[in-house]
């Protein structure tokens, strides 16, 4: 800035010299030139008086933030007061770019134990999860916490995809009884349902449950099977009187 003002001042000084020589009888022109020169001299004095802005000193192993002001430590270093201290990363670990926490994480297949990265012991028929921090058993095996045990599936059953419970369910038409699947006895005029509790069967339309059997609904004269299919309703204009349908 000072150099630019100095150059401008030199140009105006020359202009003033030539102006005074070319226009000796125009005092207004001389006054204007003098005002400009004095103004530039004042700016030049101010520019020399203002100290140059000191650039921020960055500590070693740091860089200026991409937004805002200040600085941040490079990956593998963390801020301690006004310095960047190297993060001690244990074997089988790697430095992170977070400004908080330990500053390191364990590699896939390792888990943090104190300040170390310990290898995850995956048992036979087991596999690491997608994060690499724990393991699960293959389909057909269940975990007891340390090993993967084969799931014994009884007859008329199939494997499930859940790691909870027995690991198997009975096929349709069968019910679990401890470690086996017993066939559901469906009575005549009945059918299997998808229910997982209770009888697991219902009676056909026109029949009603009586114990473990399906008995035919006894429809009196002037009546018909109801909407639910397990009873009867009088025809209009008949009204129910006990077990019969009578005119009102």
What does this structure look like?
With about 250 residues, the chain is α+β, with helices and mostly antiparallel strands. Among the domains are: about 45 residues; about 30 residues, no CATH class. Helix content is about 20%, strand content about 30%. It has 2 helices and 24 strands. The strands form 12 sheets. It has a two-stranded antiparallel ribbon. Strands 3-4 form a two-stranded antiparallel sheet. A two-stranded antiparallel sheet has the order 5-6. Helix 1 packs antiparallel against helix 2. The protein starts with a helix and ends with a strand.
Count of distinct strands: 24
Mean pLDDT: 83
- Percent of residues in beta strands: 25-35%
Q: Which radius of gyration do the C-alpha atoms yield? A: 47 Å
What proportion of the residues is helical, as a percent range? Answer: 10-25%
Q: Give the neighbour order of strands across the main sheet.
A: 1-2
Sheet having the most strands: 2 strands, antiparallel
N-to-C series of helices and strands:
HHEEEEEEEEEEEEEEEEEEEEEEEE
Tally of helical runs:
2
